[in-house]
Automatic annotation (TrEMBL):
<keyword id="KW-0472">Membrane</keyword>
<feature type="region of interest" description="Disordered">
    <location>
        <begin position="505"/>
        <end position="557"/>
    </location>
</feature>
<dbReference type="InterPro" id="IPR027417">
    <property type="entry name" value="P-loop_NTPase"/>
</dbReference>
<feature type="transmembrane region" description="Helical">
    <location>
        <begin position="27"/>
        <end position="47"/>
    </location>
</feature>
<feature type="compositionally biased region" description="Basic residues">
    <location>
        <begin position="505"/>
        <end position="528"/>
    </location>
</feature>
<keyword id="KW-0812">Transmembrane</keyword>
<dbReference type="InterPro" id="IPR050445">
    <property type="entry name" value="Bact_polysacc_biosynth/exp"/>
</dbReference>
<protein>
    <recommendedName>
        <fullName>Lipopolysaccharide biosynthesis protein</fullName>
    </recommendedName>
</protein>
<keyword id="KW-1133">Transmembrane helix</keyword>
Amino acid sequence: MNQPIRALEDQDEPALLRDQFRQLLRYRALLASGVVVGLLGGGWLALSGEESYTSTGEVVVRSAASDPFAAGASADKGINIGSERQTAVSDSVGTVAVATLARQGDRVEVGPLLSGLQVTNPPNTLVLRFSYTGRTPVLAKERAQALADAYLEIRKQRTENSIANMVEGYRAQLSPLTAQRDQLTEQATGSDDVAGARANLVVAISELSRKISELRALDTTPGYLTKKPAEPTGPTGAGLPLLLGLGGGIGLALGLLLSWVRLVFDPAVRSTRELVRSLGAPLLGTLPRERASAGTLLAIGRSGSRLAEEYRAVAFRLAYDPSFAQRRRLLVTAPRGDGTGAAAAAANLAAAFAEMGRDVILVEADLRTPALARDLGPAVQAAPPRWVNRGELAWPSESRKNVDVPGSGAFTLIAGRRTDNVARALTSAPVGVILAAGDRPGAVVIVLAPPVLSYADAVALFDRVEDVVVVCDPREVHRSDLERIREIIQAAGGSVLGALLHPGRSRHERRALKKAAKRRTGGGRPRRGSADGGLEYADDPAETLGLRPFDSAAGHR
């Protein structure tokens, strides 16, 4: 049975990813919680935030030019658009805009005014886009208009100031030259040197005058407001649907992250792959959830039962397994818990083998809390009262019962009985004789043992019942438990044939089982000394009528 293990090891990467995704989907509560938190956060942001409106205007920046229509004239001559963008958001522009808005009745400080302004520059253009966000459409429009006008005014003032400074500089150079020219004119001599010096002064004075004239003739228009800010028709930013969508997406991502963290630190078996790897044995089958009939554990014999068909499939698989076919002895146990799932599996496998025509003996090796005969209900045929021979014969003597499976046959049940020394009873010679019945042709011996990790009773049987089937709920068993079970079974000389998974119990079922266990251990009348020195409780009407407790050492009274 190593082929399924190799098949799981050879899974490709997409199969592993699908398996991991299915494992994440196991934590639906975390995923749903993340989505709910995201939706609540998005809704809170949408409903608690104030509505804002954005108005946008565009300004084309140009440089001063003497003749903008001349050939070769360029509007971007000497313009650094990055510097202009910094100027547009400067305090000087804000100060001019504050004065303008104050005249309109909108009193605001420079800092709060500039906090709502955003200036951007589309690539490869000389356009500055002024976007202002305000509480109302009118406020956004007026402030965007005021800031754009303030920028153009500041830029025009700076250009005019630069021209005025240059003109003053040229005039400062022109005054001494004019004085020297006038002085040379007064000398009025026929000397060639004086005439040459006067001519040079005239040329210099003419050049400076020409430059002053050109500066005064410059077009100082800083730019044009090509797109005036308009009143926005609707609020800006993400609306309620968009915020809910974003919140849901972020919440789902948060839920997946929490699920992944939970998956990493979850000690339980997360997939069939991990179960097979931890136990070192293949998966024999997965039992479907099905409402059991009242009073019996047997699913074999019910018409149209999916659970019965799964048990039959497992029994056929075991029947053709070389290891089991050689020894025909099977031990059924559970890792921990009350062993109800293992008891149901053992009884139904016994019924399935009986249906194949095998001579089946089912041995209940649970000598601490035996309940298989009672749980099988009406299927167990009437037998002499146990109190007749109590105190004279030890288990398993006089414990044989016949279990009739309607329409499938019958098998022999050796019911468990409370015993003072469980280890001695399980290793006794009569038990060895019963287990040796598996060597007869056509015979099958199935042993129901207590949970391996709860008691050491099953370990005493591993050397004589080598083949073991572990029945567990994958959501309740840990990977470390399966690894420990494998080590215990291998150390005792046994081998694990496979695992059988049963569906987990609901909260109501677990509560009912706890009440039933409490009734078994705390209700009824005292019967006889138990293995731990206390009193056992009668489950037979003949014993319940007695007034005196039985003493295992002194026999019955």
